[in-house]
Design a protein that fits this description.
The chain has 4 helices and 4 strands, in the order αβααβββα. By secondary structure, the protein is α+β, with helices and mostly antiparallel strands. It has one domain. β3 and β4 form a beta hairpin. The termini are far apart.
Length: 118
């Protein structure tokens, strides 16, 4: 990106889908009329104990900020789905960042509804 956000601000604004520190969320405005669903399992204690990181480096923070920003600009179809205890990777290794946090049938139904299939 040519440097840090401070050094290459315009590049970050142009290429990032969302910037919490930019007015209007940067390019988030492009999602104003699009149904958006975000999934996260912010298992803070597990992350502290296993990855030695805190909540602030979690993408859950950005997902919550994006959901709020979209709702603020009128997107009534912006959703944040949070889960607990679902994140596992084969062969049963705990990882709250795994796609197993998603209820596949429910997501497929949501996508079908968005496409007019239901």
């Amino acid at each position: 990106m040519g440097g840090s956000p401070k050094e290459s601000r315009e590049t970050y604004i142009k290429k990032s889908p969302f910037l919490a520190w930019e007015k209007g969320g940067g390019n988030a405005r492009l999602l104003a009329d699009i149904p958006v669903r975000l999934y996260t399992e912010p298992d803070v204690l597990w992350t502290i104990e296993n990855w030695r990181t805190d909540y602030l480096v979690s993408n859950a923070v950005d997902q919550a900020a994006l959901t709020l920003q979209l709702r603020e600009i009128g997107n009534k179809q912006a959703e944040l789905i949070t889960t607990s205890g679902k994140g596992y990777r084969p062969p049963g290794v705990r990882n709250p960042h795994s796609w197993t946090i998603v209820d596949e049938d429910e997501l497929a139904n949501w996508i079908g509804k968005q496409l007019g299939s239901n």
